[in-house]
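Predict structure. Chain length: 242.
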Amino acid sequence: MVAVRGFHPIGIVTFKYQTDRSMPAIYQNFMEKIPLSTRAIEAQLRSMKLAFFIEKDEQMEWKTMPPMFIYSFYRFIAQFRRLPDQSEFWQFYLTENQANFTEQIKNHLSALQARAFRAYPSFVRDVHFYYLLAESREFDRVLYHPDIDVKYGIDFIVQYRGQYFGVNCYISTPRSFQGREKKQFRHAKLTRLVLVDLPVHFKGSKKCGPFYLYSERELNQLITILNQHRFPSDTGIDSSSQ
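Prediction complete.
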């Protein structure tokens, strides 16, 4: 396998060439049986409000590993077939995890809640973008699973023109870059995908209620990045024979 990392004004593309283009069976689509849509999500978001706490604790921000917020967020969606609001998300997270909190976490619970409330809008953006990608019909498949997100740092897996790509979306802010620098060492490496970074900006983003969402702008940016990849059909190589 040969890895080539390239730069593009829209995003950063890592091409990992390999002969085995099949997907392992572990890549299941967590969202497949959840009957949501961008329209349903946006209808919900218009009536929601967001609240944030000023409180930040360095220990809780970067040096403590509480149970992952993301699992509770997606389990709520799977159970109730809708998005939680911030308070519902926090209460559901506590119900699932509070019994296993360490004394350190219990002593900094308000800082943990502040951190959860700040993380919440990004979870909403991602689940909305999943449905936007799936509804676009631009891709052969669109997959999401929290396990892949946590273990590999991949927000979505898309199949485009027969090739699987791992897509990582993030808001292009100094705090986001700081978080990515710290988290990159937590993630295992996955070599069966073409890995794509999609940095996006709040300016010009779609606004829905108090939320900034990914939209057709980011969809088109992603397709532009994917089209930089050299597909077997572009080179006359029949991947089925490899």
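Summary: The chain has one domain: 2-236.
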